[in-house]
Every structure is written in C-alpha cells, then in structure tokens.
Amino acid sequence: MPGENHPILETKDLNIAYGTLEAVRHINLSIPEKSITAIIGPSGCGKSTLLRAFNRMNEFIASVRTTGMVRFREQNIYETSVDVVSLRRAIGMVFQKPNPFPKTIFKNVAWGPRINGYPGSLQQRVEEALKKAALWDEVSDKLDQDGLSLSGGQQQRLCIARTIAMEPEVILMDEPCSALDPISTRRIEDLLFELKQRYTIVIVTHNMQQAARVSDHTAFMYQGELIEYGPTELIFTRPKVKQTEDYVTGKFG
Amino acid sequence: MFDTRKLEKNLKRRKLVGKVSLLVCVASTLFGIVLLGVLLIDIVRDGYAYLDSQFLTSFPSRFPARAGIKSALWGSTWLIGCTALFSIPVGVGASIYLEEFAARNWFTRFIQLNIANLAAVPSIVYGMLGLVIFVRWLNLERSVISGALTMSLLILPTIIIASQEALKAIPDSIRFAALALGSSRWQMVRDHILPSAFPGMMTGVILAMSRAIGETAPLIMIGALTYVAFVPERLSDPFTALPIQIFNWASRPQHEFHNIAAAGIIVLLLLLLTMNAVAILSRNHFEREQH
Ligand SMILES: Nc1ncnc2c1ncn2[C@@H]1O[C@H](COP(=O)(O)OP(=O)(O)O)[C@@H](O)[C@H]1O
Ligand SMILES: [Mg+2]
User: Fold this and answer.
1) Which pLDDT tens digit goes with each residue over B175-204?
2) CATH superfamily of B55-290
3) Which of B84, B280, B98, B105 is nearest to B189 (CA)?
4) ipTM of this predicted complex?
5) Which residues line ligand 1 (CB under 6 A)?
C-alpha cells in the first residue's frame, strides 16, 4: 500500500448501488494520514459516490445500497453502533458548488462549533478557522456581512473555514474548484498544502493538472472500479495500466 | 442559409402574434381589476352611510337604525384567533415532519395523497364533520371552540401543502452543508431550514386564514347562531361570525338592511386587510432580520 503514513481511511470490497445501477464496485483503498489523496476519472465513474461513502452522506439518497466495509481508524463506520453525527464531526466535507448558509460570515463558521457545544470563545475559533482557510485578511472587517455576498472563490474558502472550525481529522472535497476561476483555484490549491500539515484530505477532481499539482497519492477510477492507485508521480509518469495512461495523457476522458 | 424574404415575413407575423398575446393578457388583468373595483365602489356607496361607531358597538337589532355588528366582529375575531392557534402549529409541524423527517415510503405517499384530496373537499362537508365530531360526540355544543376546530380542519390541508412547498424550495445543498458539519436533523431544520422557509410558510398561512374568515357554510352547519346579542367570553360560548351576520342582513326584505349588509362587508374586508397587512409586515421584518 502506498504511503509512509498510517492509513486513516480504508475500504474493503466496497460496493455502492443506486437501485440496480452499481455505481461503485469492489473498491479496496487505503488512505494515509496527513496527506492529500486525489480521486480522478471521467464524469460518472463514481468519484462522488465513493467520496460520500467516507462520511455516510450517501444515506440521504433513498435508493442507495452500500455493502462492504469502510474503516475510519480501524472502526467500521457502517456498523449500527457508530454515531453518524460524531462521524461527520470528524470527517468534514466541502461540496462542489460553494454552499454557504444564507447567514453572516461569522455565523457560517461559528454554527458548527456552537451546536456541538464548543466551550471556548467562538470569536477566537472563527478567527482561527478563517485564518487557516486563508480568508481572514479579506473578511476580518465584515464578519457580519452575508456569506453569499462574497465571490465564488471566497465562498468556497468560507465553506472550508466552516469545516475547519470543527477541527475534523479528514476533509473530503468534491471538485471544490470546478465552479471557480483560475486565480481562486490557485488560492485553494495553495491552501491545500497548508492544510495537509494538520488534516487528511481526499479530493475528487476531474482536472488532471490539479491532481498532479496537489496530491501525494492518486486513485484512478473508471466505470465504478478502481483501476490504479499509487503515488501521484508514478500514476502520472509510469502508470501500470493502459487505461490509466490513456486517461492521464488525455486520450479519453 | 435562411431565405431572408421568408424570414422577414415570418418575423412580422411573430411580432403581431406577440402583440396580440400581450393585449389579451393585459385585458384579462384589467377585467379582474375593473370588476373588483366596481364591486368595491358599489359596496362602499351602499354601506358607507351606516359605517359609524354606533354600528361597530351595537348588537343586531330589528330596527335598522340600531343594528350593529359588535357580536359578529367579536365572534369572528375569537374564531380566527383560535383557528390560528390550533391550525398553525399542527399544520406547520405536519409539514416539517413530512418534508424533513419522514421516510419516503408507501405510507407517507398515502398520507400525502390524502392531504391533497382533503384540500379539495367542499367546506360544507367539513361542517358536517364538525357537527358530528365536535358538537355531538365531544359535546362541545355550538360554541366558539367547535367553530374554531372545524375551521382548523378545513384549512389544515392548505397550510400543510403550502408549508411543504416552502420547505421544498430550500435547496438540498443547505441541508447537506449542515449535516456534513455533524448536526442532527433537528438542529439543521431549526437553524437553517425554518428561518429560510418561514416567509413562504407565512404566505400559505395568510391565505388559509383569509379563507377561514370568509367561510360561512361550515359555521351554519355546526349551528353558529344568526342572532347573538352578546360577545363571547369563553371558548364554550355560542357565537356568530361576520359572514353569517352579513348573510342574515342581506336576506331580509327591508332595503335598509341591505345597506347594513354592505357596511358589514366593509368591516369584513377591513378586518381581512388588517390581518394580512400585519402578517405581511411581520414577514418582511423577519426576512430582513434573519441574516
Ligand atoms: N442520486 C443518484 N441517484 C441515482 N444515480 C446516481 C445518483 N448519483 C449518481 N448516480 C449515478 O452513479 C454513477 C456515478 O456517479 P458519481 O458518483 O456522481 O460520478 P462522478 O462524481 O465520478 O461524476 C453515475 O452513473 C450516476 O449517474
Ligand atoms: Mg461528481
């Protein structure tokens, strides 16, 4: 298995189906701690479905059926004894389209800690999170403005700050830059390098340059299956499977 | 390539069709407004002379000069107040359960279908239901509470459906954002869904209340009185309501009473307008406060 670090997330023969459509099949994947893992592959290959399996967000889709195992720190998260609310506290998620709450910037970040009974100063917590998300300098003087009044890139960093404020262990990101311009994208990519000091990041992207730039490991998926998984450098320079090579060199996708 | 001559001819025709459609739409709108205006003018002309403080503070009487609307005005106020008290919490609660918590299965689909059907049941049927359940079985008599419970049943489907629509209008991305932060469903609903859906829910409630205040048939059915010379003081008191009183006056032979009926209609309209204005103002206020 790739990675010097300890695996924090692991899947064993994971299958996810929407009704009769088997969107994700036989996935065995082990994600090392405090690193960035990219999931790449053509549209509809099951990247988002796999990502949502890590914090059980697939549960909100009525037709979904999950079999196999996902382990977070050795614990199978699909066991009935697992409290899904605390699981999601530990495994945060940033979505494809920035989705701040229609509330002030401050409330956007403070809400998570507050409902989870954070005992310290919310003010401080919000400031820290916004700093870690590289947004503080831009919003420090307008924390009481509506989060939706920010630009798309700022909104996405606000969503990252909101997630960071929970101090999760893992941050799942589903194409977080696909709705952003190149400059905002660049800022978020820079931010990812900062974040991986403290967090484990799993990022779905259909942008191969992005995967190559930011990630330590890359998983290539095709039609619901994991085709190849390894250190990013190897996947992009010396892939073992022909399909991977075709995809990363742009022959299809 | 397009044939430009044909295209031009075509374009002229399309513009003409556009203009005609616009005209038809404007005419339809005007038709409604003009009709409403004529109706209002007619009523105000008939009733204006009778609309004084004596009219508002007197009980009904055989003599047109002494007849007043006090008991009906108070009856309607009681009725609408209690109806709001019963129907809003139940209706909003049901909509939240159905939209945000209930699993989507045959049972909830069955309930949903029933609610939609109930919204289309004629009001007189609710009157019969109220008569049997509240007046007879529960022995609540022909009282304010019987009337308010019957009215609540009548408008519940409307409130539930309108509130559900308001909840459906909130994008799922907000729900997912909240849940992914490790919130319970209730925390998500309380802090993000309800504040956003509140204005839409208010609109539904306003419409439902407006309907309740104008309904006559179910009240007649459960036996609201037509002649009441006192103001209800508790839930178990008999009562009358504005539309009943108006109907009573309008069906008398003497011409003066027709004018008094018109004055009663003005009072009913003013009450309706006040109610809606208060609701809309508080909704707008809330919309601004929310952020
Ligand atoms: N909510 C859903 N209901 C039914 N099918 C879905 C749903 N979401 C995704 N799918 C299907 O599952 C497959 C994988 O989708 P997805 O995980 O979104 O792929 P990707 O993120 O790689 O584009 C696709 O065929 C898609 O049509
Ligand atoms: Mg996707």
Assistant:
1) 999 999 999 999 999 999 999 999 889 888
2) MetI-like (1.10.3720.10)
3) B98
4) 0.91
5) A 18, 21, 23, 41, 43-49, 61, 63
